[in-house]
Amino acid sequence: MKLRHAPLFLVATALIAGPLVLFAEAASAGTSASPAITYQTSRINSGTPNSTNVTKDPKTGAVTSYGDSAITYTVPSPALNALGQSLYLQNCASCHGTEANGVPADGTQGAYPNLQGLGAATIDFWIVSGRMPAANPREVQAMRRVPRLTDQQAVAISAWVNSLAPSYPAIPSVNIKDGSYSNGQALFALNCAACHTIEGSGDALAFDTYAPSLRHIPGYQVVEAIRSGPGNMPRFTGNLSDAQVRDIVKYVLTYVQHPQNPGGLGFGGLGPVAEGFIALLIGVGMLALAGYWLGERE
Description:
By secondary structure, this protein is α+β, with helices and mostly antiparallel strands. Helices cover 42% and strands 7% of the residues.
């Protein structure tokens, strides 16, 4: 049976957690110091080099890739740093400062987010989703737009920013071939549907923010969002393994982006309330017209 409603306690949890996340972000925005690297977790295969497969540079000992058969994370090559710095200074430094520490040219401390220590995947996500460079740096929530920079340019900028304070997650590549659709559906309902809706259409949150639609998002960006927690979204680290994240991605890329609607017309995934209203309007309306017509014949 296809799921249509998120459990009530999940909705309540989202309503409580949303303002708390916003408050935490507002509190952290007041400082330009490098953010504490809290991404580390002791759980194996959960988005950090504590993974089944870890590859290191034989000369420097630096991690170059990690992960398992579900997701492979790749640290951008240091060879991209020069290009990345040049692109960063052209597109990002006016707000985030020349050292990516959130201090612009006028020296205002904490004016913009500090990018150091966030991991390459975090930087890559904001650029490839078109949210950065921001059209309006003061808008409440950056909207997804057509990217100004190419994927290769985004990786180069990520390489340079990450070189300032190396951290994780690295840029992921997900293998959904062996993923479980049913497990992904259950995990999505438990962890994602309260905000994004079970249809993945997105929904409004508190303080003029919203959970975006997942309809046209590549799989690797779904992983980046889950592992980095952009905006109001929680960061899922030790509570979700790479295999579980892979299953969620498979569900998003199949059902959410290509719904089957075996029960009839899906009406674009408007949701049960809108679909029920349309069914009621058409169904009862047709019955009323049929009754009127039969009555006139009598």
